[in-house]
């Protein structure tokens, strides 16, 4: 059975960790934080945060290591894999990895200001 595909948008938690395997294959690890947005008392607020480890291989890893920076919003499309590991205290934990097939920078805008025909010659 194939792993499920996910599309996620989040901010990079740390600088991309770029490396090369013993076989010469490029690998880049990243982590994104995704916040749920919800309306509360008529205002949009951040809800719970989910963290996803992003694993990128080969040419896409080369590009990611050179392109993305901590705090930047990125879009990730890839396969979801749940991993089990033991933390430094010996407690078994689970993590969620996205093995990325596609990455893109996300451009976020601020609230648009009102403009009139005198501000814009195209109106």
Q: Your description of this structure?
A:
The chain is mainly beta. The protein contains 1 helix and 6 strands; from the N terminus they run E-E-E-E-H-E-E. It has one helix at residues 58-67, and strands spanning 5-12, 17-20, 26-40, 43-57, 73-86, 92-105. A 5-stranded mixed barrel has the order 1-3-4-6-5.
In short:
This protein has 123 residues and is mostly beta strands.
Helix content range: under 10%
Amino- and carboxy-terminal Cα gap: 54 Å
Q: What would the principal axes of the Cα set say about the shape?
A: globular
User: Main sheet?
Assistant: 5 strands, mixed, barrel
- Strand adjacency order, main sheet: 1-3-4-6-5
Overall mean pLDDT stands at 88
Could you say which structural class the secondary elements and strand pairing correspond to?
mainly beta
Report strand %.
over 45%
Number of helices, where a helix is a run of at least 4 consecutive DSSP H or I residues: 1
The H/E string reads: EEEEHEE
Beta-strand segment tally: 6
User: pLDDT below 50 for ≥5 consecutive residues: which ranges?
Assistant: none
Radius of gyration: 19 Å
